[in-house]
Fold Putative DNA-binding transcriptional regulator YafY.
Amino acid sequence: MEVIDVMNESRLFKIVYYLLSKGHAAAPELAREFEVSVRTIYRDIDALSNAGIPVYAETGRNGGIYLLDNYVLDHALLSDQEKQELLSSLQSLSVLDHVYEKEMMTKLSALFQIQSDNWFEVDFSRWGRKTKDNARFEKLKDAVVNHETVSIVYAGASGMRSKREINPLKLLYKAKEWYVKAYCTEKEDFRIFKLNRMIELEPTGRRFIPVPFPDCEDAQNFSYNKIILRFPKNMAYRVYDEFDPGEIEEQEDGTLIAAAEMPEDDWLTGYLLSFGAQVDVVEPAYLREVISNEAKKIFEKNKP
């Protein structure tokens, strides 16, 4: 159909979505938003109108480009690929087990006339912790969306527990772990907290005014250095779990060399010790002594 062909123009769809969000907009505003000329915007408006979208322009002091009141976005505006991507995104949210999200996916599947085959499943909870992990995630998600302060008991890298109040700004999934970017009222600074280290978590009911999180790789200012490790071939299952294939080099004897940028802190010491005797630190050399001394402490503390 000609209408669908016209609607496949990405900018036209974005213009309609923009007008739905803003109510109306001046042509120069749309031109700046989509980085085209005002003349192009007016051509786009004509194309939308010819395609049956109730868009119109008003002149005068309060003029601009409007959509007819109560206009509902027709599902034909979305391409087949966009429909599939939207359904896939909603399906990935099934980890939260919320009825409204499943109902929404069912309704959209019917509206788009696309059969949802549930071809993948996403679950970020730990084994045996599905209910607790997802409940905690849900509380934080609501706090971020509603700008609500949260009280937490947090286990720091040193193992010390501290009670804090944070203003959660954004949830972050990185390196197989969930984090929350937040403003810590106790430290009066921005921090990144690991969800699994939150021993207790409870919304306070108090609202905060959100502010942008600093544009940096990491608020904790870790020092990253290149770490080179050697593993026996029987550890391949974990090496490929933990490192990117581009960071791994297989040797003739079957051993594996992994080289990656890592933060040199207490976390790295504990991480390397988790491999037990199945890892050799190649570089930096001084890290071998750090691991050795820590292993001796563990032995002395736990020897029979």
